[in-house]
Write the structure tokens for this entry.
Amino acid sequence: MPEAQTETIRRSIPSYAREGFWIAPDNWRIRRVDWPAVNCIGGVETETRGSMLFLPGRGDHYEKYLEMLDHFARLGWHVTAIDWRGQGGSGRLLPDSHIGHIDDFSTWIADLKDFWGKWKLHSPGPHVVVAHSMGGHLAMRALCEKAIDPAAVALSAPMLGIQTMGLPYAVHHAVAKLMRALGDPNRVAWKEGEKPGSPLNVRSKILTHDSQRYADELYWWEKRPDVRLGPPSWHWVERAIASTRQLTAPDVLEGVTLPVLLMATTADRLVDTKRVIQDAKRLPNSELVLFGNEAAHELLRETDAVRDKCLSAISTFFDRHAPKL
């Protein structure tokens, strides 16, 4: 597809995609976009391959992934993406709307469980999940807790563990608990960027090597300022570590028997790729695609060489494990 056309897709919502909200049981509005299956030749509707739910990462909003949503829609998938409660267009949870926050990760699992049940009833099968980073962690927890039942799942740089800069997980968690207790737990954990000590001018290097795809996010921040979110609260940090540690318990991941594709990079500076590699071995039915220095954290928004390999791996994986009904 020509670069001008892909940029248009990345920076506009097509007329045939529907933006809206799903109302959670507690009346919280969860923003969603639904992208019908579209044939890439002539733009006419084609037979549906199945339905795909995309779950973004921390601080993300679905506008960042329009190019990917369009890609799978053109392969015949009905694609839906949501913004997590407290970020993107799904409202904020603190008076300071710049701070990422959640009371507990179980709240997001409950949202996903309720959304999944209703979405699955009104969309054609097979039903699959693609998730990135924190979305990958939440998808994995939901699988362990049997909150969702997809035919297969593909995870991009899943947050199965957070980078601890060499600290043991227990020590890392203890530091987060201490920082939460020393002041307002809802205060911002650091000033800018995606991790402590990473100002915005190095943020792009942490996320992707593709400067144009990185610029797409900045474009949407200007066009839709409400979707922008800054660093998390100390409470979020502590709850995130606690949630990832839940997955280390014996027999938790071992009980997830459905097919799981994990894609990760050893150059990731946000999630612990060693945990991804270890957990891939614990999952009974998993495949691992591993990148090196050519890929940063946002694999699905990387340069074409990396991104295309990820998209191909996802399609091949679903063709094997979630064939068209």
In short: The chain has a mean pLDDT of 93.
